[in-house]
């Protein structure tokens, strides 16, 4: 089985240098034949004895996080930050024969997730933050396991959506998991937008969508999302423990509420660092970035020019893609707006995908994730001719994750500019990711009206941190919002 933890082991740079010196000294003293045994063992022992155990939520120089209920009675936002140990494709194939297999060489994956709950006083969002990451690394699902899970949805949830999905399960598997060939989920696009371009690293290895995210990794994500939603969020794992006369109404009441879920999975492209928990702090790191999306929580990346780029697409009733998936009448849905003018699915839900929300599951309100994969970070390992093929140009500065309490007030570029301009003004030493996440939330508290939603912000530092231009593209817009709030326009 794979495992997960909320901390990393960080080895100080001076200890690494001392270990390297001891290895070189051992090599000179004992000759090449003895370096691999005595030398490497000594260096490893020195490093392990002085490694620092650092909790990921207490690592302000690399990861910042802040949340506030703002003007709501409860804060239903939640988040989790963990280091996962994920198997390689080979390990997963071997694990089908030996379920207890766990290699010490399983790669380290930094998982950061943000959840925006609604109803049930945050029951689902808190459950996701507390338990979901464990399910992602648990077990080794197969294609048949996935089909069996869809069959459980068909029998336990019911409805036309799940029946149709089960009937076309093989086509669904080929399209969204095996071949990964949907436009929304391609890693790198060709000029005709029909296929991925090949990128070569400096060693001549091909980097494409398969090398960043395999079919088995995609299967693991799909399976864990749907399984956790059915069993934990919707309560179908406890059916045997429920009273015989337990009604559907009581079930809906006990397992009320729902939540969005947006996650990033960051791992090192360099095989030499794949087992190193602290890979993401290296200034020359090149990373595989996998992003999953359920709902409307936003994930934004800041490129080397300080430009904001969305990493996800929102699951709203007005989305043509979601309308097609659910066979919705778009014109009818546009007419069904709430008192705030927002379009609602089933005249109730702001999102067309979520965890929980049992009452809408039968109609297709599912937790099927959109999955995106990117290559980001330091481009020294790529030839200069290959860098232009990257979606964001390489050398990105940071990733920012926010709930709609933030994104409903600030645009993507305003969020990025608020962060970069604060660093430019306060300096890198003071304005670390933790300081900046708190500043974003404080800004929302300052400008939000009396109906303002919960606000949560998470910032992950990338290798090019602080190297953006000293320009604030949206300063006037943010100042106008602050001035408007100070004049009493927050009704």
Topology:
Blueprint: E1 3-5, E2 7-10, H1 13-30, H2 32-49, E3 52-55, E4 63-68, E5 77-86, H3 89-95, E6 107-118, H4 123-136, H5 143-156, H6 160-167, H7 169-178, E7 199-200, E8 206-207, H8 209-212, H9 215-233, H10 248-254, E9 258-259, E10 261-268, E11 286-294, E12 298-302, E13 308-310, H11 320-326, H12 330-335, E14 355-356, H13 358-361, E15 370-377, H14 384-387, E16 398-402, H15 404-407, H16 412-426, H17 433-447, E17 455-461, H18 475-486
Antiparallel strand pairs: 1-5, 2-3, 4-17, 5-6, 6-9, 6-10, 7-8, 9-14, 10-11, 11-15, 12-13, 12-16, 16-17
Helix pairs in contact: 1-2, 4-9, 5-6, 5-9, 16-17
What does this structure look like?
This protein is α+β, with helices and mostly antiparallel strands and 491 residues long. The protein has 2 domains: 9-54; 59-315 and 351-486, PPM-type phosphatase domain (Phosphatase 2c, domain 1, 4-Layer Sandwich), CATH 3.60.40. It has helices spanning 13-30, 32-49, 89-95, 123-136, 143-156, 160-167, 169-178, 209-212, 215-233, 248-254, 320-326, 330-335, 358-361, 384-387, 404-407, 412-426, 433-447, 475-486; strands at residues 3-5, 7-10, 52-55, 63-68, 77-86, 107-118, 199-200, 206-207, 258-259, 261-268, 286-294, 298-302, 308-310, 355-356, 370-377, 398-402, 455-461. Strand 12 (298-302) and strand 13 form a beta hairpin. Helix 1 runs antiparallel to helix 2 (32-49), helix 4 (123-136) packs antiparallel against helix 9 (215-233) and helix 16 packs across helix 17 (433-447). The longest helix is centred in the middle third of the chain and has 19 residues, at 215-233. The N and C termini lie far apart (53 Å).
């Amino acid at each position: 089985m794979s495992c997960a933890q909320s901390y990393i082991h960080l080895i100080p740079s001076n200890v690494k240098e001392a270990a390297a010196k001891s290895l070189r000294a051992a090599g000179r003293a004992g000759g090449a034949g003895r370096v691999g045994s005595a030398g490497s063992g000594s260096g490893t022992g020195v490093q392990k004895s002085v490694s620092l155990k650092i909790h990921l939520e207490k690592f302000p120089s690399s990861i910042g996080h802040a949340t506030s209920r703002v003007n709501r009675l409860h804060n239903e936002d939640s988040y989790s930050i963990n280091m996962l140990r994920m198997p390689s494709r080979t390990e997963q194939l071997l694990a089908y024969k030996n379920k207890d297999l766990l290699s010490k060489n399983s790669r380290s994956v930094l998982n950061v997730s943000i959840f925006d709950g609604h109803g049930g006083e945050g029951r689902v969002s808190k459950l996701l933050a507390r338990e979901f990451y464990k399910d992602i690394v648990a077990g080794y699902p197969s294609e048949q396991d996935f089909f069996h899970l869809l069959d459980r949805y068909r029998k336990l949830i019911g409805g036309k959506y799940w029946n149709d999905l089960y009937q076309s399960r093989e086509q669904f598997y080929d399209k969204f998991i095996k071949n990964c060939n949907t436009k929304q989920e391609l890693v790198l696009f060709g000029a005709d937008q029909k296929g991925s371009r090949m990128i070569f690293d400096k060693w001549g290895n091909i980097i494409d969508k398969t090398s960043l995210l395999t079919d088995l990794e995609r299967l693991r994500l799909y399976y864990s999302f749907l399984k956790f939603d059915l069993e934990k969020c919707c309560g179908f794992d406890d059916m045997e423990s429920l009273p015989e006369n337990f009604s559907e109404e009581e079930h809906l009441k006990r397992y009320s509420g729902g939540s969005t879920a947006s996650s990033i999975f960051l791992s090192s492209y360099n095989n030499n660092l794949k087992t190193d928990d602290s890979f993401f702090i290296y200034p020359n790191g090149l990373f595989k970035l996998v992003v999953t999306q359920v709902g409307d929580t936003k994930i934004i990346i800041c490129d080397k020019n300080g430009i904001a780029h969305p990493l996800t697409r929102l699951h709203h009733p007005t989305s043509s893609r979601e309308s097609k998936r659910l066979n919705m009448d778009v014109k009818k849905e546009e007419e069904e707006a709430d008192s705030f003018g927002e379009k609602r699915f089933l005249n109730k839900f702001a999102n067309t995908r979520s965890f929980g929300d049992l009452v809408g599951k039968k109609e297709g309100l599912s937790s099927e994730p959109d999955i995106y994969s990117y290559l980001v970070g330091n481009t020294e390992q790529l030839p200069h001719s290959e860098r232009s093929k990257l979606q964001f140009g390489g050398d990105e500065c940071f990733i920012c994750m926010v709930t709609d309490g933030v994104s409903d007030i600030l645009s993507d570029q305003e969020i990025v500019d608020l962060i970069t301009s604060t660093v430019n003004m306060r300096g890198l030493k003071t304005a670390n990711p933790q300081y900046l996440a708190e500043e974003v939330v404080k800004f929302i508290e300052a400008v939000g009206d009396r109906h303002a939603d919960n606000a949560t912000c998470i910032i992950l530092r990338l290798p090019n941190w602080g190297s953006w231009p000293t320009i604030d593209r949206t300063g006037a817009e943010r100042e106008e919002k602050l001035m408007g709030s100070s004049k009493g326009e927050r009704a």
